TrEMBL record:
Compositionally biased region (Low complexity): 203-221
Residue ranges with Polar residues bias: 185-195
Protein known as: Ferritin-like metal-binding protein YciE
SUPFAM superfamilies, per database record: Ferritin-like
Region (Disordered) residue spans: 169-247
Domain of life: Bacteria
Alphabetized Pfam families for the sequence: DUF892 (PF05974)
Biased composition (Basic residues): 237-247
Length: 247
C-alpha cells in the first residue's frame, strides 16, 4: 500500500504543512520578542519567566525542524498574520506604559498570555492533524511543546495573581505621556522598541532557523525577517500592512 508520502499530498496535508511553517516563523521571532519583553519587564520574577520561556522556545524551534526533517521538507518559515498581530499588541503595551511600572508588567503578562494561547491552539491542532495524517512521529514532539506552552501560561497567571495585578491596581496614574509626534527628532519609546527588536532580528535570516538545523535539513532562505516585521522606516508593520493576499 502506498504511504502518505508517496501519494500526492491531500489538501489537508498541505494545510498541515502551511500551519507548520507559520508556527515555525512565529517561534523563530518569539525568541527575540521574549528577549525584548524580558528587558522591558520591571520585576525580576517576570524577567526570569520570559528568559526561561525563551530557552524553551529554542527547543520548540528544534522540534519543528525535526518534524520538517521527518517530512522531508526544508525548514521554511512562512509569515504568520495572527502572530504578527499579537507582536504588534506587545509593542503597543511597551509604547503605552511607563517603564518600571506594575501596570506595564500586568499588561505584558496579558500580551504574553495571548501569544501562549495562540501557540496552545496551534500546537493542539497540529497534534490532532498529525494523528489524522498518520504523522505519528510528530505527535509526541507537538505534545512536548504544547505542555511547555501551557506551563508558561500557568506561570504567567500565577505571577499576575501573586502580586503584579494587585500592585498595578493601586498604582497611581503616571504623568500623562505626550503622544509621540509623527515626525521630528525626539526619540520615542516606539522607536526605541522598534530599534531594539530590529537589532534582535538583524541577521536572523528567516530561513536560517536555529543552529540546530542539522540532521540534513536544508535551511531555506526566503528573505529577511526584517522585511516581514518592519516597514522601510524601520517601524513595525501594522496588522493591515501585512495582510497576505488571498490566492
Ligand atoms: Fe513556543
Ligand atoms: Fe510560548
Amino acid at each position: 500500500m502506498a504511504t502518505q508520502e508517496q501519494q500526492s499530498p491531500s489538501a489537508l496535508e498541505l494545510f498541515f504543512r502551511r500551519t507548520l511553517q507559520e508556527i515555525y516563523w512565529s517561534e523563530l521571532h518569539l525568541r527575540d520578542v521574549l528577549e525584548t519583553m524580558a528587558e522591558r519587564a520591571g520585576t525580576e520574577e517576570l524577567k526570569s519567566a520570559f528568559h526561561t520561556h525563551r530557552l524553551e522556545t529554542n527547543d520548540h524551534v528544534s522540534r519543528l525542524e525535526k518534524i520538517f526533517h521527518q517530512k522531508n521538507m526544508g525548514a521554511q518559515p512562512v509569515f504568520c498574520l495572527g502572530m504578527q498581530g499579537l507582536f504588534d499588541e506587545g509593542w503597543q503595551v511597551i509604547d503605552e506604559t511607563e517603564a518600571g511600572s506594575a501596570h506595564r508588567d500586568a499588561a505584558l503578562i496579558v500580551a504574553a498570555q495571548k501569544v501562549e494561547h495562540y501557540e496552545i491552539a496551534t500546537y493542539g491542532s497540529l497534534r490532532t492533524l498529525a494523528k489524522t495524517l498518520g504523522c505519528e512521529a510528530a505527535v509526541g514532539l507537538f505534545e512536548q511543546t504544547l505542555a511547555e506552552e501551557k506551563k508558561t501560561d500557568g506561570i504567567l497567571t500565577e505571577l499576575a495573581e501573586k502580586g503584579i495585578n494587585a500592585a498595578a491596581g493601586i498604582e497611581p496614574l503616571a504623568e500623562e505621556k505626550s503622544p509621540p509626534p509623527d515626525t521630528g527628532s525626539i526619540g520615542t519609546e516606539s522607536e526605541s522598541t522598534a530599534n531594539a527588536m530590529k537589532e534582535a532580528v538583524d541577521g536572523l535570516d528567516a530561513g536560517a532557523g536555529s543552529a540546530d538545523a542539522s540532521e540534513g535539513v536544508e535551511a531555506s532562505a526566503p528573505g529577511s525577517a526584517d522585511a516581514l516585521l518592519f516597514d522601510d522606516d524601520g517601524k513595525p508593520k501594522g496588522k493591515r500592512g501585512n495582510a497576505r493576499k488571498k490566492n
